[in-house]
Amino acid sequence: SRTKMGFNERSELLETSKITQKIFKLTLEKKSNLCVAVDVDTADKLLDITEKVGPYICILKTHIDAISGVTEATLNSLKLMAKQYNFLIMEDRKMADIGNTVKLQYNKIVKWADLVTVHSISGGMMLKGLQEVINEDKDLLGNRGVFIIAELSCDGNLISQQYIKETVKISEEYKDIVVGLVCQSDDVIPSPSLIQLTPGVNMKNSEDSLGQKYQNPSDVILTKGADIAVVGRGIVQDDNPAEAAKLYKEWLWNTYIERVSN
Ligand code: 5BU
Predict the structure, then answer these.
(1) Average pLDDT for residues 87-113, to the nearest whole number?
(2) What's the distance, Cα to Cα, between the start and end of the chain in Å?
(3) Residue 199 Cα, ligand 1 centroid: separation in angstroms?
(4) Does 39 show up as a binding residue in the annotation?
(5) CB 117 within 8 A of CB 92
(6) In the chain, % of residues over pLDDT 90
(7) What residues sit in the active site (predicted)?
(8) What is the pLDDT of residue 142?
(9) Is the shortest distance between the CB of 230 and ligand 1 below 6 Å?
């Protein structure tokens, strides 16, 4: 099964896309399957936290529209740090509009973010729009990817089993750009060539006051089947974000090693 296979083996599968290979390779190089969600409110904090957690992460996840004072220079600094510390940048934009609109939105994001998230609500044509943007530029081909949201971590969300099934189908139709699915259980992703990204991870809390549900790093990797785990406040709001990132990174990676070695 997917969860028993190592990232190395999965990256070498014929149907694994170039950008997905790049992610697998990066996790193995850094021994990190930690994605940090830098949910802060100013550009200064964004760069400050990124500098601190950069050495420990495979992906940095942003909600750039929630951050004040972000300029071209901010995005350039972010890209420089991504190079320096060897991580990818993912804008968690959760695009959800018709193909044409999504294309317009993605034209801006594609310049600085390696990865982007989308809802599958509008169907396959939205993915086609993204594909067109990527295909327009030779330098982008193989260097940009999409995570599709199949499940949400919060209480009371409206996603049904049927929606999940249809989402998986779409992900298989656009394998050259879809790197994986954002989901909460190990039985959603059918193919080892796709990556399971799972948010809702915290060592200390089991929920927040607005419906977010948390699991600890062991549960999320062993029980829920996450390949890469997303941690936000557990690291960003810690007194020492670098130390917290290191702790999460080690716990998550050791659990992944445990999962694939027995
Ligand atoms: P937290 O502080 O660890 O709760 O942050 C979780 C992050 O993951 C935050 O940026 C959310 O927008 C994101 N997220 C999520 O929490 N749950 C989901 O199902 C999806 C994204 Br999709």
Answers:
(1) 98
(2) 12
(3) 5
(4) yes
(5) yes
(6) 99
(7) 92, 94, 97
(8) 93
(9) yes
Angle between helices 241-260 and 43-53 (to 10 degrees): 50
Cα separations in angstroms, 182 against 51, 123, 178, 185: 26, 16, 11, 10
Nearest-atom number in ligand 1 for the CA of 117 is 22
Q: Is the pLDDT of residue 147 over 90?
A: yes
Name the residue at shortest CA distance from atom 10 of ligand 1: 37
Ligand 1 neighbour 36 (Cβ under 6 A):
no
**Is 184 assigned to a binding site?**
no
Catalytic residue numbers read 92, 94, 97
Please name the residue whose Cα sits nearest to atom 1 of ligand 1. Answer: 232
Please check the confidence at residue 118 and state whether its pLDDT lies above 90: yes
CA distance 105 to 110: 9
Query: So what's the pLDDT on residue 262?
Result: 76
- Complex ipTM more than 0.90, yes or no: yes
In degrees, rounded to 5, the angle at the alpha carbon of residue 132 between the alpha carbons of residues 127 and 134 is 95
| Alpha-carbon torsion angle 122, 124, 126, 129, nearest 10 | -160
Is 212 annotated to bind a ligand? Reply is yes
Contact 126, 102 (CB under 8 A): yes
Is the Cβ atom of 92 under 6 angstroms away from ligand 1?
yes
Q: With a cut of 90, say whether residue 40 has pLDDT above it.
A: yes
What's the residue count for the chain? 262
pTM for the model:
0.98
If you measure from the C-alpha of residue 231 to the centroid of ligand 1, how many angstroms do you get, rounded to a whole number? 8
Closest by alpha carbon to 173, among 131, 221, 111, 217? 131
**200 with 153: CB under 8 angstroms?**
yes
